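[Automated response] Your request has been received and processed.

Submitted sequence:
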Amino acid sequence: MAQPKLGQKLFDEFEEKKKEVVREPITLDQAAETLVALLPPDTLMFVKEASAALALPMWQMLLGYAMRCADRMELYSPSILSSWAMGQAASRDRSCTNCGQLFGSPHPDAMYCCHNCFFGKVSTLGHVDNCPTKKVS
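Generated structure:
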């Protein structure tokens, strides 16, 4: 019996997601808004600010960035976030690697909710005051 290729389960799940059919056509503006929603919040803020300042629709901004990358010979060196591989936004909630609690972070590939979890001291010191896992009361 042949061994499945490494990552086959992930590939199969991705293929299932690809089978979803868009029933209604969308506009270029809607497509662009869907794509930019996957950007990290700080990048999204700057792109929207530039779009407003230049009075250009978001889809033209995205295509313009692709053209700028082509001009600079940077098409083969994109910045890819791990969350995009799963079709998720960069600012999604994620589980802390140490304590397992869900937290949001402005950093796309954050693995720990706070520095006490990062250093493995959450069991003795607890979470820091500004830890995103703490509920605001």
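Summary generated for your ticket: The longest strand covers residues 94-95. The mean pLDDT is 79.
If you did not submit this request, please reply to this message.
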